[in-house]
Write a structure and sequence with these properties.
alpha/beta, MutS, DNA mismatch repair protein, domain I, Rossmann fold, 4 domains, eight-stranded mixed sheet, six-stranded parallel sheet, globular, DNA-binding
Length: 446
DNA sequence: TTGACTCAACATCCTTTGCTACAA
DNA sequence: TTGTAGGTTTCCATGTTGAGTCA
């Protein structure tokens, strides 16, 4: 009889039905067995079921879980869950930060009642999820990552650990939840999706689409986007209303000279080198050239100098000074693109700073103080964009940032938790006049 | 257990003028 | 004459994280 079993990130098919062409099967070069990548498991079963074939399914040996939740789903969370169920338990739910994606996942875990792997990008999120799941289900939760390797019917893992363990444990879960699922499009991480057999898959993100188009990979591995709400859909109800204020500043004379000089070097190279700078692919081409073409390298470095000048313009510091004075009684997070600027700001305005160099304990202490109110402001580069539980603020100042829509959405999300006094959140965006930063700022608005 | 270190991986990085050689 | 690809076989720099190692 035909037998399906999980083996090293694949589904092995023994004695396939002779009169039936099963899709996705390939002969294993070493053993000669017929195998399919584990994520094709559901599709294989569909084909076999569709032909009324009798087969022995040793993949699906999961013990059902008896779980319940005390959460009352909000309307949109219920709709998201229903949409996912209608898609046969495969797909991505796109909800803004703070809209309660975890709650949707917990409801999905309850409704499936199957061993579940939750995959998250950072150890910080790993701990949050574990606490949340333990509190909700009153069972021990397994953990891959952060120095632990314990498997339980419900297990939380980092993407890195999931990558390392997937071929080993990939057959042990019936449902996999990918938090911040856009990461799954990464060149290496996508293998996680391939090596797991779980037929039911739920992806969670605030920003599904990727500029490199790799959300199509995510779709293939997890399923299509089945539900989507943007910040503006929830602002006023479940998220705070907000305003965005753009403040334009000018370069000093010296900065202007440095910027123009560097920018010209860059543009000059493009003009004389037959490079159209239309897309990320063209940029990569330039990067490749710079490996052995000194002029390309010079152009690239010049572009970086220009970026630094426009992003870290002195006038932005003055603008920040007046913003901080205006919001003496508010809770303010300041974002930059460069760590050295973080430290400059920290020194000049006596702001607690968090960067990648800040150790775990110091980081926790700063965030705790920010939470309880003894600090009312904090300055950071990109650390707090994602994957960290950041206490709520009501004012964000984006001193500089990339053109990434995702980064912008995440930063905005940091101030959108509903205010107890019903007040509005405010995001300042500082942009240097007559530089490419004007376009960068446009791009990230999406 | 902790801290310091290294390493690998991921994300962003770009935006508007015009050459050359070859294919259709 | 007109239209279009060009470049190779990854990676200029910076910021960030997780895993692993070692003391």
């Amino acid at each position: 009889m035909t037998t399906l079993s999980f083996e090293d990130g694949t589904v092995r098919v023994d004695d396939p039905p002779p009169d039936l062409q099963l899709p996705f099967l390939e002969a294993d070069p070493r053993s000669g067995d017929a195998r399919a990548p584990a994520f094709r498991y559901a599709a294989l079963r569909d084909v076999l079921d569709g032909c009324d074939e009798v087969y022995d399914d040793r993949v699906r040996s999961w013990d059902p879980l008896d779980l319940s939740t005390t959460y009352e789903l909000r309307d949109y969370q219920r709709e998201a869950l229903d949409a996912w169920e209608r898609a046969d338990g495969r797909g991505v739910v796109e909800l803004p930060t703070g809209a309660g994606k975890t709650v949707v996942a917990i409801a999905a875990i309850v409704s499936r009642g199957l061993p579940t792997l939750v995959v998250v990008p950072t150890v910080d999120l790993l701990n949050q999820w574990r606490r949340e799941l333990e509190a909700e289900f009153a069972v021990e939760i397994g953990q891959f990552g952060g120095g632990q390797q314990t498997k339980r019917p419900i297990t939380v893992s980092t993407y890195d650990s999931a990558y390392l363990r997937a071929d080993d444990v990939g057959g042990d879960f019936g449902l996999v939840v990918f938090d911040e699922v856009h990461h799954l499009g990464g060149e290496g991480y996508r293998d996680i999706g391939r090596l797991l057999a779980a037929p039911a898959r739920l992806g969670l993100t605030a920003t599904f689409e990727r500029p490199d188009g790799a959300h199509e990979v995510v779709e293939a591995l997890v399923g299509p986007r089945v539900f989507s709400l943007a910040v503006d859909d929830l602002a006023g109800d479940h998220l705070a209303e907000y305003d965005i204020k753009r403040i334009e500043v000018s370069l000093s004379e010296a900065e202007r000279a440095a910027y123009d000089d560097a920018q010209e070097t860059f543009v000059d190279y493009l003009r004389t080198s037959n490079l159209d700078m239309r897309s990320g692919a063209d940029y990569r081409k330039l990067v490749m050239r710079s490996g052995n073409d000194p002029r390309a390298r010079e152009a690239l470095l010049a572009k970086q100098r220009a970026r630094r000048v426009m992003m870290n313009a002195d006038a932005k510091l003055d603008a920040l000074e007046s913003i901080l004075a205006r919001h003496r009684d508010d809770r303010v997070i300041v974002f930059t693109a460069h760590t050295d600027l973080v430290y400059r700001l920290s020194e000049r305005f006596l702001l607690p700073a968090i960067t990648n160099e800040t150790g775990t304990s110091e980081r926790r202490e700063i965030l705790d103080r920010f939470r309880e109110g003894s600090y009312s402001r904090v300055v950071t580069a990109n650390v707090l964009d994602e994957g960290v539980d950041v206490p709520d603020a009501n004012v964000a100042v984006v001193l500089s940032g990339s053109g990434s829509e995702r980064e912008f959405t995440q930063r905005l999300g940091r101030i959108l938790r509903p205010k107890s006094d019903g007040g509005r959140a405010l995001l300042y965006e500082l942009v240097t006049r007559e530089t490419t930063e004007e376009d960068v700022a446009e791009r990230r608005r999406g």
